[in-house]
Amino acid sequence: MADRTFSSNPGSTDGVTRRTLGRGAAMTAAAIAMLGLAACGDGADGSSADAGSGAGSNPAMAYENPLGDITLGDPDAPVVLVEYASYTCGHCAAFHNENLEPLKENYIETGKVYYVFREYPLDPVATAASMLTRCVSPEKHLEFSDVLFKRQPQWAFVQDPRAALEGIARQGGISKAQFEACLTDQEVLDGLRDMQSYAAETLEVQATPTIFVNGEKINGNLPWPQLEEIITNQLPG
């Protein structure tokens, strides 16, 4: 399972700043697009599956995230939705941009859904974006994620993604020195690897987006009416 997920090593972060995002080398737009689409496309059909072999009725929530989860809502809500996403995945951007607002308005803010966002970077550029997200204060994590997804074409598929990310980071209040420190933070890098390994090996996440609704695993981007139906079917009464 893990070999299939990481067969081309797209999530590897070794040398992310030196080789891929370094000053002297930038991944081409075509190469980034190829990585993102190949990974996003697998299993992006909205199908349901068992949630793997983890303990308990909701194995996704059995994981203790070393970086801390990015969350919204009441942890005691009757429905827990866990999303695994990659910042360079077009399906993930569509899922996030189209579903998060109605989810927040109708279910998170009303105490019905507890939302958990976890990074599953599929390539070095997505890894760098994930590391930057972890640089901002915790209360700003999801806000920064929103910016990355909404502006994805402006940084993920350009000739110099490093420079584009640095520009977005600067607009978010991250200085150049902080930007450099973010992309070389080994603790964050190790945390992302741990998060991705658990998802791949225990939860059998093979593509993004993958969501778990009260432990039920759903692969791929879902239109809002379909996602809402899954959520309402999990609500008591």
Automatic annotation (TrEMBL):
Bias (Polar residues) ranges: 1-15
Domain Thioredoxin-like fold residue range list: 68-232
InterPro entries named in the record: TAT_signal, Thioredoxin-like_fold, Thioredoxin-like_sf
PROSITE patterns tied to this protein: TAT
Classification via Pfam families: Thioredoxin_4
Region span, Disordered: 1-20
Alphabetized SUPFAM superfamilies for the sequence: Thioredoxin-like
Family in the record: Belongs to the thioredoxin family. DsbA subfamily.
Protein name listed in UniProt: Thioredoxin domain-containing protein
Species classification: Bacteria, Pseudomonadati, Pseudomonadota, Alphaproteobacteria, Hyphomicrobiales
